[in-house]
């Protein structure tokens, strides 16, 4: 009797388990390979690949594929991608030198801002919106990117967004930040660098608005404790921290920013931190990360 | 052959020293003023991060001599915790201390750091924090050939060991 090899038994793995396994993959090349391997990998791989999308604002000649307009066009051509995008990172002040500054035009800036608003309108499940300052070390972008970069959000997106990172905020843009904050009723987490935002600049905002609740506040970068405390506790700040804040994170250090001139500002004054802590009555968590600033002990 | 080897070794050492020095120069060191007063607050969790580095006085004209010794964040942390009065305890449940030790003068910094645990543990286990259930200490260091057996476990440090036996401490030493 001739030997007849048995056909190997097919093992069927449920798609939920495959999705769970693919969920642990984080690097882009592997996810791209997974996506192309089989149709069962398609959905979980795309879920990870497009969870966070980074673009730059204002548009830069160096990365034309990373502009708000290119994102808008991509979403227009492939509307299926929109369901996967949960976080949108808009890198503000991407500056690679003189050529980028020459390529900068106000008209183009305006067009990109409209495209950004249109792109966001196509993202129904967007949960987090980030405006980090992209390049901080030789940052001149703050002085020449004058236009407010916050887009007008449609109602659906405004309701979904729970996390906002506005570390690129500067003094001139406080009013537009205020308007944006007032349109986000479900915001839980705010990350902000209040270095250049002076309380006086916000003073002309008309009062009479109802302050929004906020769960977590992260103050990062080179925010000054005294000025930040004054601004946060001022009546113009759009969030009611005294009643609702649960977690306060104060991280003055910035791993990417090294300012030699900051050596002369010693010692770092923390007297207002006590006032801030006492003002937030329902605070349950305090995170303090001044990584490089501590007094000497022998 | 020997000469070539010696020259290469010298160049390598010089480059290594230069790179340490140049990297170390990038570490800014600005002291903090007194810690905030946390007495009477309803905080349940505190997370503190500290970076231990050898202080430099070269960027601080007028403050020469202040930054010539190694610095440690533990003194500041102890002072912060001591702002709570023992007779007015707070309901702190969790403390996380994340400490990064600079690779330059790592041995001296580690010796200094581990000298101070008695004081930290004393404050944490005092009647200031009766509801404290979890203390997480994480030390990240680049020891560059230093023997780290002493620091990997809490057995050699009675204060830390006492906390561990009490079920409070989760201790991690990460050398990379």
Number of helices of chain A: 12
Tell me the total number of β-strands of chain B.
Answer: 4
Strands across the major sheet of chain A, in which order? Answer: 1-2-3-4-5-7-9-10
Estimated structural class of chain B: alpha/beta
Order of helices and strands of chain A: HHHEHEHHEHHEHEEEHEHEHE
Describe the fold and architecture.
- Chain A has 298 residues and is of the alpha/beta class.
- Chain A is built from 12 helices and 10 strands.
- Chain A has helices at 15-22, 28-37, 39-49, 68-77, 98-103, 106-121, 141-144, 155-160, 174-182, 225-232, 241-244, 271-279, and strands at 52-57, 87-92, 128-130, 163-166, 189-192, 212-213, 216-219, 239-240, 247-250, 285-288.
- The radius of gyration of chain A is 23 Å and the shape is elongated.
- Chain B has 6 helices and 4 strands.
- Chain B has a 4-stranded parallel beta sheet, with helices on one face.
- Residues 11-28 and 57-70 of chain B have low confidence and may be disordered.
């Amino acid at each position: 009797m001739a030997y007849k090899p048995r056909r190997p038994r097919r093992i069927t793995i449920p798609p939920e388990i495959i999705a769970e396994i693919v969920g642990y993959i984080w690097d882009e090349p592997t996810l791209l390979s997974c996506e192309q391997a089989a149709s069962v990998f398609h959905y979980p791989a795309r879920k990870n690949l497009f969870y966070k999308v980074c673009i730059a604002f204002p548009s830069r000649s160096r990365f034309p594929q990373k502009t708000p307009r290119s994102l808008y066009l991509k979403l227009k051509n492939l509307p299926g991608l929109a369901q996967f995008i949960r976080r949108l990172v808009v890198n503000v002040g991407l500056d690679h030198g003189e050529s980028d500054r020459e390529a900068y035009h106000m008209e183009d800036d305006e067009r990109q801002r409209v495209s950004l608003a249109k792109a966001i309108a196509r993202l129904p499940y967007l949960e987090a919106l980030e405006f980090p300052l992209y390049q901080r070390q030789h940052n001149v972008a703050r002085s020449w990117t004058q236009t407010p970069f916050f887009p007008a959000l449609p109602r659906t997106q405004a309701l979904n967004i729970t996390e906002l990172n506005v570390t690129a905020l500067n003094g001139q843009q406080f009013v537009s930040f205020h308007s944006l904050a007032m349109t986000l009723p479900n915001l839980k987490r705010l990350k902000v660098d209040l270095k250049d935002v002076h309380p006086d600049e916000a003073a002309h905002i008309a009062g009479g608005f109802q302050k929004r609740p906020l769960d977590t506040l992260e103050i990062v970068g080179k925010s000054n404790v005294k000025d930040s405390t004054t601004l946060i506790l001022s009546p113009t700040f759009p969030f009611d921290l005294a009643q609702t804040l649960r977690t306060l994170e104060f991280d003055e250090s910035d791993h990417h920013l090294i300012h030699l001139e900051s050596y002369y500002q010693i010692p770092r004054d923390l007297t207002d931190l006590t006032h801030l802590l006492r003002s937030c009555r329902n605070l349950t968590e305090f995170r303090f990360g001044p990584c490089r600033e501590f007094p000497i002990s022998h | 052959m020997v000469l070539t080897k010696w020259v290469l070794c010298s160049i390598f050492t010089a480059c290594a020293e230069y790179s340490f020095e140049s990297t170390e120069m990038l570490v800014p060191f600005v002291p903090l003023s007194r810690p905030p007063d946390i007495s009477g607050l309803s905080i349940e969790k505190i997370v503190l991060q500290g970076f231990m580095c050898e202080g430099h006085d070269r960027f601080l004209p007028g403050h020469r001599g202040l930054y010539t010794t190694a610095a440690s964040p533990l003194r500041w942390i102890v002072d912060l915790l001591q702002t709570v009065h023992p007779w007015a305890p707070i309901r702190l449940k969790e403390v996380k201390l994340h400490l990064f030790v600079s690779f330059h003068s790592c041995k001296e910094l580690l010796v200094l750091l581990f000298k101070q645990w008695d004081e930290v543990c004393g404050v944490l286990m005092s009647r200031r924090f009766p509801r404290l259930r979890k203390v997480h200490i994480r030390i990240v260091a680049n020891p560059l050939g230093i023997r780290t057996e002493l620091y990997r476990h809490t057995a050699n440090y009675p204060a830390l060991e006492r906390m561990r036996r009490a079920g409070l401490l989760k201790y991690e030493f990460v050398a990379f």
